[in-house]
Design a protein that fits this description.
Blueprint: H1 4-30, H2 34-83, H3 100-105, H4 117-125, H5 131-159, H6 163-176, H7 183-196, H8 200-213, H9 219-233, H10 237-250, H11 255-268
Helix pairs in contact: 5-6, 6-7, 7-8, 7-9, 8-9, 9-10, 9-11, 10-11
C-alpha cells in the first residue's frame, strides 16, 4: 500500500486539474459550429420563403375564383341577350296625308336634324343581320336582274318579229326562272308567237298553260280570251263560247271581259 500522504496529494492534484479544465469545457459547449449556424439561417430563409409562396398562391387562387365568377356572369348576360326578341320596326303608313299646316309651310329642301341619342343607342344595340343572310339577299337580287334582262331580250325579239329567236329566249327563260314575277308574261308571249304564226293548236296549249299555272296573275284573263279567239280561228265556235264565258265569269271588270262580251255577240250574229 502507498503512503497516505501520497494518496492525499494525488487527490488534491486531480481536483485542481478538474477545476481548471471545467471553464474550458463550458466554453467549448457554448460555442456553435459556423456551418451549423449557416444551415440554420438557410432553414429560416426557406421557411420564410415558403410562407411567402403560400400567401402568393392563396392570392392567385382568390383572383382565379373572382375571374371565373365574372366569366359565368358574362355567359348569363350573353344568353339573356340571345333570348331577347328582336325589336320590331315601326310601322309607317305611306298613304297618310300630313296636316294642311305642315304641308303648306314645309320647305322645298329639308335640313338634316341631328339624330336623338336614344335612337342612336337603339340602332347600335339592334342585332346585325348575319353575313350569310345578306349574301343570300344579294344573290337573289342579282338573279332577278339577270332574269329581267333575259326576258327583255325575248320581248325585243318578239317586237322585231324575230319569232324563232323570241320563242327560244322565252322558253329558256321559263326553264331557268319558272317562279319569277315575269314568268306568266313569258308564257303568254309564247302563246302570242304561235298565234301570230297561225299555229293555233300550239297557241291554245301555251295560253292554257298561263291559265293553269298563273291563274292569279295579270296575263291569265288575256290568255283565256286568246284561247277563245284561237278556237274561232279554228272554226270551233262551241269551244270558243266556253272560254269566252269563262273570261266573263272568272275575271269580271277586266279589259278582257269587255272584249269577251263583244266577241260573244259577234258569234250570236253568225
Amino acid at each position: 500500500m502507498g503512503c497516505p500522504h501520497t494518496q492525499r496529494g494525488l487527490s488534491v492534484v486531480l481536483i485542481a486539474l478538474l477545476v481548471t479544465t471545467m471553464p474550458a469545457c463550458t466554453m467549448f459547449k457554448t460555442k456553435e459550429d459556423p456551418q451549423v449556424a449557416a444551415l440554420r439561417r438557410e432553414l429560416r430563409q426557406i421557411r420564410m420563403l415558403h410562407a411567402t409562396t403560400q400567401e402568393t398562391l392563396q392570392d392567385v387562387s382568390g383572383r382565379l375564383h373572382a375571374l371565373e365568377a365574372k366569366v359565368e356572369g358574362m355567359g348569363d348576360t350573353v344568353e339573356a341577350l340571345a333570348r331577347r326578341p328582336e325589336p320590331q320596326p315601326a310601322v309607317t303608313h305611306s298613304n297618310q296625308v300630313p296636316p294642311p299646316s305642315r304641308v303648306s309651310h314645309e320647305p322645298a329642301t329639308t335640313v338634316a336634324r341631328p339624330e336623338p341619342p336614344a335612337t342612336k343607342a337603339a340602332r347600335a344595340s339592334a342585332p346585325k343581320k348575319p353575313a350569310q343572310e345578306v349574301a343570300v339577299k344579294k344573290a337573289s337580287a342579282s338573279a332577278k336582274q339577270f332574269a329581267k334582262r333575259e326576258y327583255e331580250k325575248g320581248y325585243s325579239a318578239y317586237v322585231e318579229h324575230r319569232y324563232d329567236v323570241a320563242l327560244t329566249l322565252f322558253k329558256n327563260f321559263l326553264q331557268r326562272y319558272p317562279q319569277d314575277d315575269l314568268a306568266d308574261n313569258a308564257q303568254y308571249w309564247v302563246g302570242e308567237i304561235y298565234y301570230d304564226l297561225e299555229d293555233f293548236p300550239n297557241a291554245i296549249l301555251a295560253f292554257k298553260e298561263v291559265v293553269t299555272q298563273y291563274a292569279e296573275e295579270d296575263k291569265a284573263p288575256d290568255a283565256l280570251l286568246k284561247i277563245g279567239y284561237a278556237y274561232i280561228a279554228l272554226d270551233d265556235p262551241t269551244n270558243a263560247r266556253v272560254f269566252l264565258k269563262r273570261v266573263i265569269k272568272n275575271y269580271p271588270f277586266s279589259k278582257a271581259e269587255s272584249k269577251a262580251r263583244a266577241k260573244l255577240k259577234e258569234l250570236e250574229n253568225l
